[in-house]
């Protein structure tokens, strides 16, 4: 297996420039985690007080759910805190969790970025697709179909295919035990809010965003990062794409500097909060024209959906049918 080509910081930065970029803060990473939860709480409070704002709250909360996954991704790189034990605790207990499994999987993506062995290659392989195919995917995401297929369909399939003598209740209980945070968190939240008349807060303001808005923006983020990047791309400055993100995009689609994905692949241990500075330095040094960049998310989506309509084959293949390991979605759902 041939690993993807890498770059060395010394090729672009002096030691004085590189040192602050590589430095991990003891408070910035935890502050970003706290920020995500505070925003989620504030959006939930807004929706509970003013139910007319529920659609807005769903988008805000879904964006921060992705934000928590992005911060777990930083923890997988050991970049959320300089103390690795604290880093891993934050990544395991204050973000979606499953850090060890995700780390092993994700570092393989970096090692073989856009090469045949890249476990995430199937996420970018289908592009470009037709505009109709992209619209269908977005509708499936926003309607909850993607969430059901990835999260709940395996349970019903397992019940149908259970072994002789195996009870359906036992299958369901095994499913519940593998997802303690989801079920315990839901039960505790409902128990705390129901006496005040807000029994609906958890299903509407946590589950609904994770079943609708989160899958859609996860898809759009994946498209922006690697869609239409050539397989076996030899240039390490073009293994991933950096996409310009304005305030609205950062609020609802690209939290915590995730849009600086080319810089992240070039220097994967740089904490996310140093990526904008990394970008500015590379631009000042004239490196940016050689990097893969896009002026905005709509530009990337237009490119990713530029396949002629008469070539549409339905676009219905699942990630598993394209050879994508299920773990590719684990931290981002």
Plain-language structure description:
By secondary structure, the chain is mostly helical. The protein has one domain. It is 57% helix and 1% strand. Strands 1-2 form a two-stranded parallel sheet. Helix 3 runs antiparallel to helix 4 and helix 3 packs across helix 11.
Shape: globular
Distance between the termini: 30 Å
Overall radius of gyration: 21 Å
Q: In terms of per-residue confidence, which ranges show pLDDT below 50 for 5 or more consecutive residues?
A: 314-333
> Helical residue percent?
55-70%
Largest sheet: 2 strands, parallel
- Proportion of strand residues: under 5%
InterPro entries: FA_desaturase_dom
Keywords: Membrane, Transmembrane, Transmembrane helix
GO molecular function, one term: sphingolipid delta-4 desaturase activity
Region (Disordered): 307-333
